[in-house]
Amino acid sequence: MLKIGVFGAGHLGKIHMQQWREVEGAHLVGFYDPDDAQAEIAIAKYQVQRFTDMEQLIAAVDAVDIVSPTTSHYAIAKTCLLNGKHLFIEKPLSHTLEEGMELVQLVKEANVKCQVGHVERYNPAYLALGDQPLQPMFIEAHRLAQFNPRGTDVSVILDLMIHDIDIVLSLVKSPVRRISASGVAVLSETADIANARIEFDNGCVANLTSSRISLKNMRKLRLFQRDAYIGIDFLDKKTEIIRLKEEGMPAGVLDFPLDLANGDQKIISIQNPEVAPINAIRMELTEFAAAITHDRPVRVSVYDGYQAMDVAHQVLKKMSMHNELHNV
User: Fold this and answer.
1) Residue 217 and residue 160: Cα distance in Å, rounded?
2) 46 conformational bin, left if phi > 0, alpha if psi -120 to 50, beta if neither
3) What is the mean pLDDT of each run of 10 residues along the chain (328 residues)?
4) How many other C-beta atoms can be found within 10 angstroms of the C-beta atom of residue 270?
5) Is residue 327 part of a domain?
6) Is the entire prediction scored with pTM above 0.90?
């Protein structure tokens, strides 16, 4: 039985505690959180032991799940790694790039499993693509949320856009060539709405927009490639693929002819892959546990988490330079 300890009993920490109770082969030993009010709620709701000493909890478990504020990730993770514990760390990996790079090195030295919680990699609408060949040349993402004071201690880039940055980096197997960005702080001290354009060496361009002051929620990603348009709705769990129909391709939900100027005719096929009813958080925790038990690679490595952070911080830097230039 894999013994698990959770650091953080806030909103997401409680969700993780609940999901760990459903992961086969894992046992939630206890949690640590200095907030007495949050701790009492977690104890009452999940009948789980509260540890008031961080090192006692670390010593009692095989793996640690860090769901505490980002500013505390580094200190907790470093202590765990120096004690040889496997780690699951919620995104972003750490507060600074320097901390993130040190954690990458510590994971390598400790030879343990470390997974970063970029949960959209487990979104059923994204997983529905299966082994669909993806070579996007233009990507457009909109991640809009209604205002919630929780999370406003960091920019919308690290709060929301980093999800799409991670997805884009996992799709585009090419180095980043150029980044431009702009953003505005409206209700908080950091940017609440932002746009970033990321250009890659292979010619792909990603245009990402994130807002936490919208009237409605939206989490959509659109991929354009030579043979297809692919739309992914992370919020409503829907996936759509529109492409030229080739011989042997199964019928889509809608197939229609397209007459070209030269007299040729092509068939356009619209397909909606089946989206399985998956609990994304439970799946990522289950996979993390299986990676430890069966010595498998994790889906989102510590280096993946660092790369997403690196690009996010480049976006922040470009946004700051843009705002200074235009006196925003």
Assistant:
1) 12
2) alpha
3) 95 94 94 93 93 95 95 96 97 93 96 96 94 90 84 77 96 95 83 93 96 91 92 94 68 57 67 89 97 96 96 91 66
4) 15
5) no
6) no
**pLDDT (0 to 100) of residue 247:** 61
d(CA 107, CA 302): 8
Are residues 80 and 189 part of one domain? no
Alpha carbon distance 111, 106 (integer Å): 8
Rounded Cα gap, residues 17 and 35, in angstroms:
16
Question: What three-state secondary structure class fits 15?
Answer: helix
Give the CATH number, domain containing residue 55: 3.40.50.720
Distances (CA, A) of 61 to 23, 89, 216, 239, 261: 16, 15, 41, 39, 67
Please give the residue range of the domain that contains residue 163: 122-275+312-322
CA separation for the pair 115, 300 (Å, rounded): 5
- Pair 203, 292 in one domain: no
Domain count, the chain: 2
Residues 26 and 74 in one domain: yes
